Amino acid sequence: MKSTSAKLLFGLLLALAEPVLADEVQVAVAANFMAPMKAIAADFEKDTGHKTVLACGTVGKFYAQIHNGAPFEVMVAADEETPAKLARDGLGLDDTRYVYAIGKLVLWSAKPGFVDDKGEVLKKGDFQHLALANPKLAVYGAAGMDVMKRLGVLPALEPKFVFAENITQAHMFVSSGTAELGFVALP
Questions:
Q1: Given Cys at both, which of 23, 99, 124, 171 links 184, Cβ 3.0 to 4.6 Å?
Q2: Is the same domain home to 144 and 77?
């Protein structure tokens, strides 16, 4: 993976690993970025000899874990606010923060043609289950809730929610048929 964001992340990992001469670098990775991070970590390990220990999860859980002493040297978040809060709290380095990618929330179904481009399927409510990541912990879950509020469909759809641990699990719920549709990250 040789994109600009991958190079920047790789550089950040390298910068963090060299000064401390660590054998491993603990990395908290938002679930939506885990696949690219595995490729970045492999390149990092090959080039430096340092091992990366990747933890996949939600930004909200990582925030709480870091506040309780979790030993992460790097956090790859799905938002800008959480790393900024950690820096303000003295638990992160403000000058190392940067946007590595812009994510996009989509309403998706494994059933072809089930979701329209205007989200009318949400207004019709002709489905049993709607998957989304836990909005209290996951940025994409909170964004899905915001979309439903703006469309005025939130109260009607709440009984149909299937909450996932993170965005990856929300995608799995939809792809497996557990939920007919869901809010997921655009790959």
A1: 171
A2: no
pTM for the model stands at 0.74
- Look up the CATH number of the domain holding residue 167: 3.40.190.10
Can you say how many angstroms the Cα of residue 179 is from the centroid of all Cα atoms in its chain? Answer: 20
The token pair at 89 is: 């709290």
Per-residue model confidence as pLDDT tens digits over 44-65? 999 999 999 999 998 889 999 9
Residue 70: HSE in the Cβ half-sphere, 13 Å Cα cutoff: 20
Residue 79 sits in which domain range? 4-96
Q: What is the mean pLDDT of residues 61-72?
A: 94
Cα 167–Cα 172–Cα 174 angle in degrees, nearest 5: 100
**Backbone phi, then psi, for 82, in 5-degree steps?**
-65, -50
